[in-house]
Specification:
The structure holds 2 protein chains of 2 kinds.
Chain A: E1 9-12, E2 18-23, E3 35-40, E4 47-50, E5 64-69, E6 72-77, E7 86-93, E8 99-101, E9 105-109
Chain B: E1 3-7, E2 10-12, E3 18-25, E4 34-39, E5 45-51, E6 59-61, E7 69-74, E8 79-84, E9 93-100, E10 110-113, E11 117-121
Parallel strand pairs in B: 2-11
Antiparallel strand pairs in B: 1-3, 3-8, 4-5, 4-9, 5-6, 7-8, 9-10, 9-11
Classes of the chains: A mainly beta, B mainly beta.
Chain lengths: 110, 123
């Protein structure tokens, strides 16, 4: 199972919005509404930001929004803040009942 | 408060074995699928294995560990294990255990993670 495709890096200024894409196939992202997004700061465990494509867990800011179109899922962060600087990973279940992650995207807040 | 505490990491020679444990607290353990995810130094996340919840016994493995790793759980002790055999250098990673997310419709969203256990495979 190949990893989902994410841009290696994105950047934005405080207050701006950015979008991170996550491209898979019809056997994973496109076939199920089971995409999740995680934020990981250096040396820390990942933190769930979005599950089931669009759902925010309790306590996650509404500045984080998930969406999907075809085989590509997206995470949009609005009103960028310094603390949003981190690595972001998408994941999706697959037709083989396994899980695949994206390669990760480093977000830099300028 | 949900807590996941991994233990059992360390240095092991290629071809050796190691067993990781993850002690859970703060939730009804038996009801939730539990998963191991690893992260090689400086690399991304890689799913390793999942054990279903609800008292079921279904297990799932990544191709990279199938036949070498075994996931198990002891619901009486609120603990999930990962037995790792025939270890290779490429298994070197921080291993996280993770709990299925509340409110998610599938096994594969994780709302709580442990702090990670470092496994180093080297001679």
């Amino acid at each position: 199972q190949s990893a989902l495709t994410q841009p290696a890096s994105v950047s934005g200024s405080p207050g701006q919005s950015i979008t991170i894409s996550c491209t898979g196939t019809s056997s994973d992202v496109g076939g199920y509404n089971y995409v999740s997004w995680y934020q990981q700061h250096p040396g820390k465990a990942p933190k769930l930001m979005i599950h089931d494509v669009t759902n925010r867990p309790s306590g996650i800011s509404n500045r984080f929004t998930g969406s999907k179109s075809g085989n590509t899922a997206s995470l949009t962060i609005s009103g960028l803040q310094a603390e949003d600087e981190a690595d972001y990973y998408c994941s999706s279940c697959t037709s083989s009942s396994t899980l695949v992650f994206g390669g990760g995207t480093k977000l830099t807040v300028l | 408060e949900v807590q996941l505490l991994e233990s059992g990491g360390g240095l092991v020679q290629p071809g050796g074995s190691l067993r990781l444990s993850c002690a859970a607290s703060g939730f009804t353990f038996i009801n939730y699928a539990m998963t191991w995810v690893r992260q090689a130094p400086g690399k991304g996340l890689e799913w390793v294995s999942t054990f279903s919840g609800g008292g079921g016994g279904t297990t799932f493995y990544a191709d990279s560990v199938k036949g070498r790793f075994t996931i198990s759980r002891d619901n009486s002790k609120n603990t999930v294990f990962l037995q790792m055999n025939s270890l290779r250098a490429e298994d070197t990673a921080v291993y996280y255990c993770a709990k299925r997310a509340e409110g998610s419709a599938n096994y594969y969203a994780f709302d709580y993670w442990g702090q990670g256990a470092l496994v180093t495979v080297s001679s």
